[in-house]
Amino acid sequence: MKVYFLGTGTSQGIPVIGSSHPVCHSKDPKDKRLRVSVWIAWENASVMIDCGPDFRQQMLTCGCERIDAFFFTHEHSDHTAGLDDIRPFNFRQGPIPLYAHSRVIKNLEQRYDYIFETENKYPGAPSVEVHEVRNEPFIFAGKEIIPINAFHGTLQVFGYRIDDFAYLTDVKTIAVDEIEKLKGVKVLVINALRIEPHDTHFNLQEALDFAALIHPERTYLTHISHMFGFHEAVQETLPDDVFLAYDNLEIHI
Ligand SMILES: [Zn+2]
């Protein structure tokens, strides 16, 4: 299985528009972070977790030619605002399966009414085939996909486990039963916004504590704010098995 980090930044991305913060002016490509998303591919499948506002740019960079499904974590714009740009895939492939919590589906139906239109739909509009995700495993392209229920402040979010890989973002709290589902994971991706605490996101310490409960071989941190610091400097402070993810990083599991 291949996991490609399409974006590793928090909601504004890095650089932040108009910011004078030194990280926003860094020349290190690892300090440029688009909005958070991953591309996961295995023998017969190519899946995106989330579809943020940088989706078009991410697709042009990563060279993805086919998308078999989108799995959504939650409805916030930094995870969904690229939906209009799936059209080139639709024109080649037809409607694309979209997996999400029923609340997220409802939200997308309101915000992107033209995508979900059933009468007189504009022929060039994006098209999706909706699948509701409940907090129970489902099979996709021969693999068991295990949703992991967590909370982003008071908002429910889903992470996803596929084999020995798990991806969770925008997590602040997670129940013990859900952590159980992550046991045995070899590669964990988890959000870590910055050093300072935040109301709705894990900070670094919370992410490290969470990783310690799961004991993966490797942990990658994502959904990173410019306030976390320079990539290189932060990486030096991390334990040997914990890595700051960066845009266009590709790992194999
Ligand atoms: Zn987010």
Automatic annotation (TrEMBL):
Residues 35-223 form the Metallo-beta-lactamase domain. Pfam families: Lactamase_B_2. SUPFAM superfamilies: Metallo-hydrolase/oxidoreductase. GO terms for molecular function: hydrolase activity. Keywords: Hydrolase. InterPro entries: Metallo-B-lactamas, RibonucZ/Hydroxyglut_hydro. This is MBL fold metallo-hydrolase.
